[in-house]
Inverse folding.
DNA sequence: CCGGCGGTATCAGTTTAAAG
DNA sequence: CTTTAAACTGATACCGCCGG
């Protein structure tokens, strides 16, 4: 069974950073957003750049949500921008965590490379054979782009003619991806965040999960300098007790097919609500 | 001559505008 | 108001120009 890899058309990370900043500036504002993005490509056409490259790449990477007028950052996309505000290196750290998480779960290039000891070209060829794509040319393009992104974030390094995994860096990333040390703080931040959104929306207790993900992740990052991805939020939320003598958490279903729903047991949910008993 | 950037053709759905 | 046409949107595969 060959793996499927999406084609990331825009894979230059510095460019993606600037695009994400446009999304942060103009959520739900397609016109300004499009203008902001096209400025980065000095006036190229919206069809090829905005629709053909930017939107599809960011969606494949899970960094944006919504269609036409509703385009906006996902929680992961927002985390990158928040980190970027601190420094470029921090932005890379966030991006690295998110990309590595995708790689570990879907593509596994890093694991494949760690096992082999091939030169660059042979390595790429062996990867190309393992993925499913419409043509060999397409497979090559996909692998090239993913490998390039892993190099840009520093997880793959050229060493003479060989290519190796930067183990020290990878272990740092894996620390960022490990939620076991964050569980204790999670409940505290989750309830604080819930309450602040609850107040913000004038005491309406039903909170959108994509929104609370964003806020929880930002709080973790700003207050504790900890990277928490969407997946980690979902994992830690699933691990919580939903019913105690202090509170009851309930989940709300989505109306139709939507993106990035919260999976709990066998179903997908869109909203969350907490009733405090004391 | 090669490859990367990004242009293009195309498609299936939608949405909007124009025409009747 | 209803029908018809045009434009828009997101996505995909493949192509071609240009710089090194």
């Amino acid at each position: 069974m060959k793996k499927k890899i999406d084609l990331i058309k825009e894979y230059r990370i510095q460019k993606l950073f600037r695009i994400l900043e446009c999304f942060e500036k103009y959520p739900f504002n397609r016109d300004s957003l499009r203008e902001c993005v096209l400025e980065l490509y000095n006036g190229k056409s919206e069809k090829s750049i905005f629709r053909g490259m930017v939107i599809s790449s960011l969606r494949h990477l899970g960094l944006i949500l919504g269609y036409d007028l509703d385009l906006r950052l996902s929680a992961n996309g927002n985390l990158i921008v928040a980190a970027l505000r601190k420094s470029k290196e921090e932005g890379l750290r966030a991006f690295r965590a998110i990309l590595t998480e995708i790689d570990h779960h879907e593509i596994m290039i890093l694991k494949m490379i760690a096992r082999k000891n091939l030169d660059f070209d042979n390595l790429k060829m062996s990867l190309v054979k393992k993925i499913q794509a419409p043509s060999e040319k397409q497979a090559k393009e996909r692998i090239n782009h993913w490998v390039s992104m892993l190099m840009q974030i520093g997880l793959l390094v050229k060493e003479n003619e060989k290519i190796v995994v930067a183990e020290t860096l990878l272990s740092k990333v894996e620390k960022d991806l490990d939620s076991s040390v964050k569980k204790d703080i999670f409940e505290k931040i989750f309830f604080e965040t819930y309450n602040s959104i609850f107040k913000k929306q004038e005491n309406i207790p039903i909170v959108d999960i994509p929104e609370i993900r964003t806020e929880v992740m930002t709080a973790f990052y700003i207050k504790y300098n900890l990277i928490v991805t969407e997946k980690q939020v979902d994992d830690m939320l699933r691990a919580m007790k939903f019913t105690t003598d202090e509170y009851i958490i309930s989940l709300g279903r989505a109306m139709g097919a939507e993106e990035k729903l919260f999976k709990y047991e066998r179903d997908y949910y869109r909203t969350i609500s907490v009733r405090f008993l004391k």
Chain A has two domains: 1-176, 180-276. The radius of gyration of chain A is 20 Å. The mean pLDDT of chain A is 87. Residues 9-10, 12, 41, 44-45, 47-49, 52-53, 68, 144 of chain A lie near DNA strand B (CB under 10 Å from a C1').
